[in-house]
Amino acid sequence: MTEVSSLTGRLLVATPDLGDPNFTRTVVLVLDHDAKGSLGVVLNRPTPVGVADILDGWAELAGEPGVVFQGGPVALDSALAVGVLPGGRAGDPVRTAGWRRVHGAIGVVDLDSPPELLAPVLGALRVFAGYAGWGPGQLRRELDAGAWYVVAAEPGDVSSPAPETLWRAVLRRQRTRLAMVATYPDDPSLN
Question: Which residue range(s) make up the domain with 177?
């Protein structure tokens, strides 16, 4: 695991031993991480609810599958969106109105902004119901206990068209022993 002072913009990949059913085989994008706590969204938990069912104006910008994702166990009645600006043009304030950079080309989308403001520049959008949250020091304790692998995020992780394979795909692309973890069976007792 790479030691970093801030995990903002990084991925937390659940270890096979993580026992919390809210996070089994999840990939979490950390949106904020500081001394006050951490906040992220689970990238690989699609729901059957279409984006058009709750945020009609944003539905055309949502990537496939065009559904809302369960971002975590906290505040499931609230919506949060993450978007990617192609080419990483995050420095241009006109192009980024309604979008707050998290890391590189990945940022949080202000769903109160008019969708047409971001439509010309947004390359990918994913809408989440709820989020994952950790209080001060809580995530550090989980990392120290070996519950998560910390790896670099790529813009395509946010909009993976096959979210059910994201856990294995993120692990497989690592150039360390983590690539082998991708082959860990869903139920090791069946081996």
Answer: 10-78+129-185
Sort residue 34 into left (φ over 0), alpha (ψ -120 to 50) or beta: beta
pLDDT at res. 182? 86
d(C-alpha 12, C-alpha 173), whole Å = 14
pLDDT at residue 90 tops 50: no
Give Cα 144 to chain centroid, integer Å: 21
Res 3: pLDDT: 42
Q: Is residue 87 part of a domain?
A: no
* Residue pointed to by tokens 């294995």: 168
Kindly compute the dihedral angle of the four CA atoms of residues 72, 124, 51, 10, in this order, to the nearest 10 degrees: 0
Q: What is the CATH number of the domain that holds 139?
A: 3.40.1740.10
Asked if the model's pLDDT at residue 94 lies above 50, the reply is no
64-68, 103-107, 185-189: lowest mean pLDDT where? Answer: 185-189
Amino acid at 124: A
Distance CA(69)–CA(109), nearest Å, equals 15
